Amino acid sequence: MPLPTADTFGRTRGLLGELKLHTVCESAKCPNHWECWSKGTATFMIAGDRCTRACGFCAVATAKPLPLEADEPLRVAEATRRMQLKHVVITAVARDDIADGGAEHFRRTIEAVRELNPGIVIEVLVPDFNDSDAAIESVLAASPNIFNHNLETVRRLTPTVRHRATYDRSLNVLKKVKDRRGQSLFTKSGMMLGLGETEAEVLAGMEDLRRVGCDILTLGQYLPPSQKHLPLVEYISPKQFVDYARAAQAMGFAHVSSGPLVRSSYHADEFTSPPVPVV
Ligand code: SF4
Hints:
By secondary structure, the chain is of the alpha/beta class. It is built from ten helices and eight strands. It has a single domain, classed as TIM Barrel. It has an eight-stranded mixed sheet with strand order 1-2-3-4-5-6-7-8. Helix 10 (238-251) links the parallel strand 7 (216-221) and strand 8. Iron/sulfur cluster is lined by residues 24-25, 30, 32-33, 36, 41-43, 263, 265-266. Iron/sulfur cluster (SF4) is lined by residues 24-25, 30, 32-33, 36, 41-43, 263, 265-266.
């Protein structure tokens, strides 16, 4: 990974602007925005920048979404090529207004990115698609290398943190993907900490993820994007993050990222061992 520079930040911003692409880096007010863009990486957010859900932790705008843009997959592929990414992370807003939740748009984007960037590792961070078999299968048909769906928080806090989602539905999505694709892809999930969860609840969440075969875990500090969002209950100590990482490794996760600034896509390309199966 190159060293961050202001020039690279400007180039990343210019390219994303020119290709009219949205990123979760900006939309979610990610604290790593400067670092990642200054190193020439970003996480693309497809299907618009208006989400149909209103999760209490998330800075992405909730509004009536605009129609999907048919050429967006090609623009993501072109940005990936120009940024010379070896590992791309693609996420999307939740599109409950579309029958398939935007799954087909994901499939087209993965295929366009792979066609223009052969050998690239493609990681998708998807909404729950309301646990639709057809939608999940549609994404899997394009053979992403890493399938990420976040649990976001522990079971008890899920109704508060993600009132339109359920804890078990998210686990089920991850289970279905693992059951269908086995070791041909990696599944990944993450939780934000500092929302009032207990250590026992975090460990139980990690156990639940392992039970559905989840391979990769991310744990990061929740930071409220504004005073209108869920309040911060606690800063998790660096030692606690290390303790959680050790516990996760002991549970059998293939890769764990745990630290205050860790986000789903933070340093995502560092997951190389075991090698990601590339299509
Ligand atoms: S951690 Fe992910 S979302 Fe945040 S700036 Fe980096 S690439 Fe973007």
